[in-house]
Design goal:
seven-stranded mixed beta sheet, 22 strands, about 775 residues, alpha+beta
């Protein structure tokens, strides 16, 4: 078949009629603007009678579907009946052309397709990166107008291009065969097509046009070879091992230490290497071991598949086992936890709340009872309960709990920060010691306080589950907390800006990202035109337990043998949550100062922050421990980092990798977000570069729940939504504390969809999120 060329929508479809092997094209008619003006209803009906009664009038403007611009959705399409307002419907479509309308422009008229089983769009590349995947966005609701009316697309599938086989038992198999046929016909691999599959499994091509794709910077890389290497690494890390419990592993972007939330799903190399160095290579395991869990030292928690960071779930689940638990029970628990996560992937950002038993709570009996149906014996569950109680009492002890020592370590870090910056001249040495101290006196105690903070939240939740407190009482308690973030809001109200930035200026929205300006940066616009009306500490609702609740809690504490009184338990819960936020604030200063020094050091050799974001922080360690030339180390590291980062943009993997097939094709999971507060709000949406917008009274879209985004609260936002983050993340706690409705962790696909909205309603009590406009 000779090569075809793209024309407008109608002429392209006409050129494909009766020429496709893998699909059919609906009958069609075209009417030009000049013809339309000479036709009355009778002529129109006669012209279109052979198409049937139910019709769709579709735009087919010259200025859509071209190689330079698609103008997708810019013009109107209308469903109508041939005997009902036919002429006015066609006129509406023509008038949507606006300034493009002339006598030669046409509309496309086709029969409406009934009894649809699947419909949607296929992109033959990932448009924003040129990555070699077919992306299928499919609606299986049976709606006849979901494609052309712009209704919500339900499911998104990624299928790697040039697979040796495409399984015939999946609905998208014939769609990909159609795409391949069209690529050959047009000699173009960048296509955007609309399709429908009816209840007879007939595939219909509704539209095809060029896909405008961002240039691919990795055209010379064999992606298939890279994926095979990633598969091999996955296999090696997943096989049974005598030194860890569980027969296999799976990998996720959120189950533990939440890399997607903190550094993103495709972080720059500097961010990734810093996160590994400060947290996930060893610090995380030291903390778990110190707090009474299994010793996983020497096991890296974060594995990156060519720049995409994933948590080794088996390693994570091992680290939540009490230290002296019998090995046979440990094996059984890890395998159970992994199986539960595989069957409930939407819990991948809340594994400790929904899957893993990592601490003792007031509802421990109910939590463990659910495991009996999974094959656990009464003796095994009793053993687990006993060990969890001992471990939890050890952690939360009001006199000897490690969280108390960790609070003291954080104070020591403050002292050492000043000494390093004032007493060491070499920038390389300053960065080295800021990072080393950050690990020892910062992220390590922070990890401990985060563990205590998690247990605190679990205890609060279990109080509600056992009716010891109501949800309103817990919300009031959380609102009464005095965290660093809450204090920052008060200080912004009362301090001159210069004084405020002296104390809080080291914060930045991307804590690990060198290109993210600090609050005190000259380029920062975080507080310009802010209208701070956030309630002050004095306006916080005081928490006071009524006598009946106090008595119930006291009885429950004694019944469960917890090492606290009611008052000391709430002191622990308050101190743990507040301490976690304080520790994060302090250690982030060491990290932020190290990043600024690295930027200054790089500038001496002519490198911008953007270029430095591709370096690996291990060059600082090499430079400190060897006589290697730093400029050479830096240049080579940036060069290699750019290659790896560009490669990462060409790889798409699911949030949870459970099998080798996930490296080739997967469906983006529908995640269960976390709704904060019980409030309902309807407001305009702000996304993109937030510093360019007035945020007051708006619902703000934030990619990750990073503490550096606290600056948004100086603008009295109405609410916010994040793509990533858990119910115990910084921004979740912040929203609870301030009583601001928020939806945390809706997933990347949903996040992208909502960023296109103008107005959204958040109903936290009913856990609903609606696009209003």
């Amino acid at each position: 078949m000779p090569k075809l060329y793209f024309q407008n929508k109608a002429l392209t479809l006409r050129s494909l009629s009766d020429k496709l092997d893998s699909a059919r094209v609906l009958p069609l008619e075209t009417i030009s603007w000049s013809e339309f003006n000479d036709m009355d209803d009778a002529k129109l009906k006669a012209r279109l009678a052979h198409l049937g009664n139910e019709l769709i009038i579709r735009s087919s403007c010259t200025f859509e579907d071209s190689h330079a611009q698609s103008n997708a959705g810019a013009f109107l399409s209308v469903f109508t009946n041939i005997s009902d307002n036919l002429k006015s419907s066609i006129l509406d479509v023509f008038l949507s052309y606006k300034t493009y309308l002339n006598e030669h422009e046409i509309v496309l008229i086709q029969p409406s397709l009934p009894k649809i089983k699947h419909c949607g769009v296929l992109f033959s590349k990932v448009a924003d990166s040129g990555a070699p995947y077919y992306v299928v966005e499919n609606d299986s609701s049976g709606a006849t107008d979901s494609v052309t009316s712009g209704n919500k697309i339900v499911d998104t599938y990624y299928i790697r291009r040039k697979l040796e086989t495409i399984h015939d038992d999946v609905f998208y198999s014939p769609i990909i065969k159609l795409a391949i046929e069209l690529e050959n016909i047009f000699e173009n691999e960048n296509l955007d097509l609309e399709y429908a599959i009816d209840t007879n499994d007939q595939l219909w091509l509704l539209q095809v046009r060029p896909l405008i794709v961002k240039p691919n910077t990795s055209n010379n890389i064999n992606i298939s070879h890279v994926i095979e290497k990633a598969k091999s690494h996955f296999t090696n890390l997943s096989i049974p091992s005598p030194i860890i419990h569980g027969k296999k592993s799976i990998f996720g972007i959120m189950p533990d230490w939440n890399p997607a939330e903190i550094i993103g799903v495709k972080p720059k190399p500097l961010s990734l290497s810093l996160y590994k160095e400060l947290v996930t290579d060893s610090t995380w395991a030291y903390q778990r071991d110190n707090y009474g869990y299994k010793n996983l030292r020497s096991f890296p928690l974060l594995i990156d598949f060519f720049g995409l960071p994933y948590i080794d779930v088996r390693v994570s689940f091992n680290s939540f086992l009490p230290k002296n638990l019998p090995n046979s029970l440990c094996d059984k628990l890890v395998e159970h936890y992994i199986e539960q996560l595989e069957t409930q992937p939407n819990n991948h950002d809340k594994v400790e709340f929904e899957i893993v038993q990592s601490c003792y709570t007031f509802d421990i009996h109910e939590r463990l009872l659910s495991m009996k149906s999974k094959g656990f014996t009464d003796e095994e569950l009793s053993t687990l309960k006993e060990h969890l109680l001992a471990l939890t009492n050890q952690i939360i002890n009001p006199r000897s709990g490690l969280w108390i020592q960790d609070l003291h370590k954080i104070e020591k870090l403050k002292e050492r920060q000043k000494k390093i910056l004032s007493g060491i001249d070499s920038k390389e040495a300053q960065i080295y010691w800021l990072l080393e101290d950050c690990k020892r006196y910062g992220t390590l105690p922070f990890a401990g306080l985060a563990r205590a903070g998690f247990i605190a939240v679990q205890l609060l939740n279990s109080m509600v589950n056992k009716s010891l407190l109501c949800q309103k009482q817990v919300d009031t308690f959380l609102n009464s907390l005095t965290t660093v973030s809450g204090q920052m809001s008060e200080d912004f109200n009362r301090m001159p800006l210069d004084s405020f930035l002296t104390h809080y200026g080291h914060l930045r929205p991307g804590t690990y990202e060198i290109t993210s300006p600090r609050y005190d940066s000259q380029d920062a616009q975080y507080f310009s035109n802010s209208t701070q009306t956030v309630k002050s500490k004095s306006a916080h609702e005081e928490f006071d337990i009524d006598k009946e609740s106090y008595v119930q809690l006291n009885e429950a504490i004694q019944e469960h043998n917890l090492s606290h009184s009611v008052d000391s338990l709430f002191h622990f819960i308050r101190s743990a949550i507040e301490g976690r936020e304080y520790a994060k604030f302090i250690f982030s200063k060491s990290l932020s100062d190290a990043l600024e020094l690295f930027a200054s050091l790089g500038a001496q050799y002519g490198y911008s922050r953007e270029e430095l974001s591709f370096a690996n922080i291990n060059i600082i360690y090499n430079a400190y421990s060897s006589a290697d030339d730093f400029e050479t180390l830096l240049r080579n590291s940036i060069k290699e980092g750019k290659k790896r980062y560009n490669l990462a943009q060409q790889i798409h993997l699911p949030p949870l990798i459970t099998s080798l097939s996930d490296f080739d094709f997967f469906k983006s999971p529908e995640l269960k977000p976390n709704y904060i507060t019980q409030k309902t709000i309807l407001s305009d949406v702000v996304s993109g570069d937030l510093t360019e917008h007035d945020l007051t009274g708006k619902i703000v879209m934030i990619k990750s729940a990073d503490p550096g985004y606290d600056w948004i609260f100086s603008h009295s936002v109405a609410g916010f939504i994040t793509a990533y983050g858990g119910c115990n993340s910084h921004m979740a706690i912040r929203a609870n504390e301030m009583g601001i409705p928020a939806v945390i962790g809706i997933g990347e696909e949903k996040f992208k969809e909502l960023c296109k909205a103008n107005k959204i309603e958040i109903s936290c009590a009913s856990e609903q999120l609606r696009t209003i406009q």
